[in-house]
Predict the structure.
Amino acid sequence: MTTQPISQRRTYLIGKARPNAIIGKNRETGEIAVIVACAFVGMMCGLLVPLLPLRIAGLVGFPLVGLAVVYMPYKHRTFYRWFEINRSYKRTVRRGAAYRSDAVEAGTRLDGREVEIGSPPGIGRINWLSAPFGPDEIAVLLHVERRTVTAAIEIEGPGVGLRDSEDQEALVERFGTLLKHVANGDGFVTRLQMLARTLPADPDAHAKDVERRGDSSAPAWLRDSYDQLQSMVSTSSEQHRAYLVACMHYTRELAAEGNAMARATGHSKDEGLAVVMARELTDICARLAEADIRVRQPLGQARLSSLIHSMYDPDHPIDHIQAMTRRNAWPAELDATEPTYLQAKTRESATRAPWCHATAWIKEWPLTPVGVNFLAPLLVHTPDVIRTVAVAMDLEPTDVAIERMLTEKTNDDAEASRAAKMNRVVDPRDIAHHSRVDQRGEDLASGAAGVNLVGYITVSARSPEALARDKRTIRASAGKSYLKLEWCDREHHRAFVNTLPFATGIRR
């Protein structure tokens, strides 16, 4: 008698076991500049101050101050991190963080075009365009300050949790093929964003449908049996919507391609960029079909405006697109003066109380191997919490990612050699990190693309008390998914933008 070996499911390690950088642990240029400047001032004090006690205090004190500013924890961050946040928050409050939409007073021109209005704080200037996309049209946004071009489509998830392990891994491999194609292709899309929007649904919708459309002449025992079955079903109901946002960075090559498209179609240069984006998305949709991810519909200006409007006001149905235009996408009122949440209100709100929104960024991805469904506690197993999970993926070609991996591996080997010569104890985090670098090198050698990830989560509630409760729930669910969150206090009006379909939140 023989037994068949059980094939072990593949696991994934996203976060680093031990971050590395040239100086310190992933320190920014500004942090290194602060340390160098403080050390320089301390050295000047040692050379120029005549009194010995003051000379020693300056020589030692200024470098210690620089190290404390960069390294000392303060309210879950550092003094360096809080400096710019507090400065920009005070400037925002001083200038007036209360936004009021001028859509009511803007009016409409005689030719039917609507007068443009300003966007809320944190959004920046946006030019709305449209391009044909198959039988429909798609909205293309030109972000002037960020110099990017974005467009969104609604997709239908493949239902990974309903499949066995082999099918799940096959789906992930096919999605990896999509990322590889986008990163290594000759197209202009350099960034993708996945949006998972979770909203409460009417728990009595099925019962109302049965009451309206049911057969009154059915046997009594059948109706009683169905009523008993309905009573046994959970009354908590949610609707899950998924969106894919493509982003192109404005470069000289993209401008030339847009001009060529504009001359070929007889449109303006901006409309030529919209045509280029529609062409890129058509190719991506074909790859999505190969990955078993169905495209439900492209988001035109009305649908995209309705989606953005529903993110500010979850009472607004996403599919309610009547009278939805690009200037109706923004809320009627927005208040960013509260340091721990953002307040927004629309004119169609059910009550006069504004909605409260709080955004957190995923500070740490899983440091331990996880399966395909590691985000299930956050995406599915958190009922009665209105939330949006956004993951932006900045793609880079395989050869660039391999060069970066080789540089990192060279630094790791040099550090291991120095540690061995100094007879230091081997750090187990270094061993785990070396194995992770080797695994990444094998994936890149097989043709995988380099992907830089950043994630944000926005939680919405009717009151600050309910928002605090939902934030605790989301933090617990993130812990089950091996994630660490950090709430973007004093900058929620900017962090909230990262969960809108604009593909923002990651530095290029």
